[in-house]
Amino acid sequence: MVDLGELAERRRVDRRLPEMPHASFKLIFCLASLAILCTSVVGQEETANYWFRKSGEFLDNRSLKEADYALDRALQLDPRNVSIWLSKALVLELLGKGDESLGGYSKALEIVDEDLKVDPQDADALWSKGVALDALQRQAEATAAREKAVEIYNRTLSENPQDSETWFKMAEVLVSLYREDEAVLAYRKSAELNGSKRADAWLAAGHLLEEQGRHNESIEAFDQALQSIPASDAREQAFVWEIKAMSLEDAGRRDEAQQAYERITELQPENAVAWWRLAALLKDQRRYNQSMQAYDKVLELQPQFMEEARAWMGKGDILNETGRRGDAMAAYTRALEIEDRELQENPESYIAWLDKGRILYRMGRYEEAIEAYDNAIRLSPESMGVQQAWFGKGEVYLRTGRDEEALEAFWQAIELYPLDYDAWHGKGEAFQAMGKRTEADMAFEVAEKLGYQR
User: Fold this and answer.
1) Percentages of the chain per state (helix, strand, coil), in multiples of 5
2) How far from 309 is each of 50, 80, 240, 295, CA to CA, in Å?
3) pLDDT in tens, 129-172
4) 245 within 8 A of 273, measured Cβ to Cβ
5) Class assignment of domain 382-454?
6) pTM of the predicted model, to two decimals?
7) In CATH, what is the architecture of 1-159?
8) Backbone dihedral region for residue 62 (phi beyond 0: left; psi -120 to 50: alpha; all else: beta)
9) Domain boundaries, the chain
10) Identical fold, 1-159 and 382-454
């Protein structure tokens, strides 16, 4: 399946922070693409393809180190597989190992250039070359390689317009060229041809529609994806339900979102992330008893540090909202201890720095929160991680009466992700605090149109 685990990074409140250490748009499509390009033999254990697929499962479970190990095993068996090298480089990047990551991208580029000497018309190789060049900050060359790949795919489709696989590949490259509308059409064409990537195509189209704020259309696409997945495949069903649930939230259809999260917990009772999402949704609806029960379920499942810390953070929010400030501070302290342990082991984890900033903000330790957010901005390999940190800084500045700095921070967040209705609302609050009522009303109106709910 297409690995869309980082879609949640685009969501609000607790879900504003990345759901997985591999983040957002880049990983969503890069790893999906690499899985398609990987041509090793399928189905036997101890093959390169087996370990490559295993790495994807580890990523789904938020296990970056295990994914890195699996990719090492895959490369031992197939050291010239460009797709595996690109995945390895991306995982290293997300582990904060920047120099090693660049080495991986360089190795992938070296191999693909050798392949293109043999066949300059290999569109798949050009696609991979674009990924490597982009990661190495050679954007002009990356664009040229991708445009060449699209040209070749178009020639293939002019000869065989029923080739669903090529429609899918072209859609993926169009995404990397930021030609989203064309990509949606290509994904839909691939899906309508009922190829082997039908579910993936609907899922990817749904994501692009969601990114454009076309929530209802995206939900319809996710429904098509669900219909394309066998009912017996609980893991993939749960994955798409999770993405659909987030879109339902963004569309303001919270009751349906709750039903979707509950469906995931039926399919996967030990899915800590689904329980945490359900808890956060119930908290937003002020259904505190049910939310607290869901957070307790998360902790009962002994989740990874991220979900564990956020469960304690969510419990702290509920305790704070219900007037139990002392108990809330104790819960926040537990969450902070978890983040600090993670940062001792992995000081370059921008996820942990983001979470730490949010916890410190809740605890009233504002200067420390700013420092944590600044570390997240410095370390984040993804623009959305930076966007979230700017939003967090805006909250801190607003709380401490530094209104002009708050306005600038919210501006930065909006520049990076214009559909963030929380940032628009924060911008309105900053204008309001500065006595600029007209500008505040305009910002509040945009926030509400984008889906902000009080």
Assistant:
1) 80, 0, 20
2) 33, 40, 25, 11
3) 999 999 999 999 999 999 999 999 999 999 999 999 999 999 99
4) no
5) mainly alpha
6) 0.73
7) Alpha Horseshoe (1.25)
8) left
9) 1-159, 382-454
10) yes
